[in-house]
Design brief:
7-stranded mixed beta sheet, alpha/beta, 15% strand, Spore Coat Polysaccharide Biosynthesis Protein SpsA, Chain A, 10 helices, single chain, two-stranded parallel sheet
């Protein structure tokens, strides 16, 4: 499923895209996964900007935990006029990590992009992130901390925590200065090969970055400007999720592993709340 020393042979995302385009030139090239919680009408402007920005053939999967979530009727109404849009009800358990897992598991494209429903991400960069994965990286990160990137607003504690992500590039030699940012594109073949062990918050971004590093698979980044949300209330719980981020920070350090070794090590690492 993966190409690279110690990871086993197989197609990269770009190969899968080319194969799909031969049989269907209009094939979906990216599945955009957007976890949402009680966004209500606030999600309308976010989705409008997304569809305006993305030029590649796509599907957008808005994932909620409960069919009674206020996001659902808004997305369902918009989906009547936008066939690329779907609202999915997550059955893996509550929380953003489970919603993202559920969304990626239901993605039909060879590339999956995770972006937030709060409008903080610059979705004009989705196409560029997808093309990086199609060129061969397994993780393409939108980076606030490289030249040309910026974080505007947000809690101080969130900025301090992101310093850990920046240090990973220096100390563990991962291919991004912003391992903690959730706004990333992934090879879906890579994600399905290594699995997702996170079950709580938005730590999936650093988890998959750490796993790619231990497999010595390529990671790349482009600059982004993150703007704190102007409408609604953030559901980001930094203090509660910090131990989970630290778990994957530590995981990024160490020798190269095979996929089987990586999965065994991830499962042996203390994660008492993990469920299937």
């Amino acid at each position: 499923m993966l190409r690279g020393r110690g990871a086993g042979p197989g197609p990269i995302a770009g190969d899968l895209v080319r194969q799909a385009m031969i049989s269907d030139p209009g094939a979906t090239r990216v599945s955009i996964v957007m976890p949402a919680y009680q966004e209500g009408d606030s999600i309308t402007a976010v989705l409008e900007r997304l569809f305006e920005a993305v030029s590649l053939p796509c599907e957008v999967l808005v994932v909620v935990d409960d069919p009674a979530d206020t996001t659902c009727p808004v997305v369902q109404r918009l989906a009547k006029a936008e066939p690329r849009l779907n609202c999915l009800v997550n059955t893996y358990g509550r929380g953003p990590a489970n919603a993202i897992r559920f969304g990626i598991d239901h993605a039909t494209a060879p590339v999956a992009v995770v972006t937030m429903a709060d409008g903080c991400d610059d979705v004009r960069q989705v196409d560029d992130l997808v093309r990086l994965v199609e060129r061969g990286v397994v993780v393409a990160a939108a980076s606030r901390y490289m030249a040309g990137g910026q974080q505007v607003g947000g809690p101080l504690f969130k900025g301090l925590m992101s310093a850990a992500g920046r240090s990973l590039r220096l100390l563990a030699r991962v291919g991004t200065r912003d391992a903690t940012n959730s706004f990333k594109a992934y090879s879906t073949a890579f994600v399905r090969a290594v699995g997702i062990d996170s079950r709580d918050g938005f730590e999936i971004g650093i988890e998959l970055t750490a796993k790619a590093r231990r497999l010595r698979l390529p990671i790349a980044e482009i600059p982004t400007i993150w703007l704190d949300r102007q409408d609604g209330m953030s559901n980001f719980q930094v203090a509660a999720w910090l131990p989970r981020y630290l778990r994957w920070y530590r995981f990024a350090f160490g020798p190269q592993l095979t996929v089987d070794q990586l999965k065994a090590l991830a499962q042996s690492t203390d994660n008492p709340e993990q469920t299937p």
